[in-house]
Amino acid sequence: MTIVVSLPAEDKTEWWCQMLRDLLPDWRVYPIDKVTDPDAVTYAVVWRPATGAMRSFRNLKAIVSVGAGIDHVLADEQLPLHVPIIRTVGTDLTQRMKEYVALHVLRHHREMPRIEANQARQQWEQIVVPPATQRRVGVMGLGNLGAAAADLLKQIGFEVHGWSRSQKQLQGIKCCAGDEGLRAFLDGTEILVCLLPLTESTRGILNADTFNRLKPGASVINAARGPHLVESDLVEALDSGQIAGATLDVFPVEPLPRSHPFWTNPKITITPHVASLIDAPTGSKIVARNIKTFEETGTVTDIADAKRGY
Ligand code: NDP
Ligand code: OXD
Question: Which of 92, 165, 166 to mutate to test the pocket of ligand 1 (most atoms within 8 A of CB)?
């Protein structure tokens, strides 16, 4: 009963090891680089593990992603695909994402970027915006996070449309599904929120074709994954005014390199992958509970479908 922890930062790895030791006192928990007997390892708790690392544990029962997304696990080309991947999800994560989406949708809706720019110039300009009831917001992805965010936006009063792979019935939300439903979903959307998993079908989905379908002057919020966005298409759409502003939480390379032009683009708001940054004490409790349940029953509710990619 050995758990191995592999996270990008050493201090985070140590911290998670300690939390898991406290929560699972009968288990041995090691940072990945301290493992002496790889065959004893039965669970791996990971964020973006090194290529081939999971393959070296021949008796692995499950890989636990310390997050909702599993793209960072699937990125390992040598991943042992028969090993189940457990997602770390819960009300804490959902609540945080709801707050982030509401904050940034309202920020675009109420023209805050323009108001802030005006303040910097000491300019008094009263901008009249429509009420939320006359503003159409589109949420891409209606899973744990997207459905909850869409529901909150509806409660605020927005006209909310949602898009997913399979058709959903969500009260008060106009739901579209699949490739055939994408156009209807995008046409006329004024604030687009991406909460899709990163898969081969969704990579690059925030592109020129998508932007051109939105209402001119629309805003885009990407809180999902960096590679959903075609960066050059966004810059072009911002330059032409088709897109008025964007809020980006995620990037293909994180941390976003200091030299990246997005840092200084006045039409882009950057947040450092904090939309729903897992709170470590809560996250480690969810992980420990999932490992315990999996060990006892051979399954948990939050197993991802690796073939589907999420
Ligand atoms: P879920 O797996 O619960 O939901 C995914 C949703 O996306 C589902 O509604 C699914 O449709 C839909 N979807 C998947 N593929 C397609 C497709 N090809 N076309 C249309 N819809 C599609 O994921 P979560 O809500 O838990 O998380 C979503 C993503 O958010 C994560 O994968 C992660 O990348 C990102 N994330 C970002 C965080 C941050 O801090 N920035 C924090 C946490 C997550 P269907 O319901 O039909 O299957
Ligand atoms: C996640 C994330 O996938 O934080 O949970 O991005």
Answer: 165
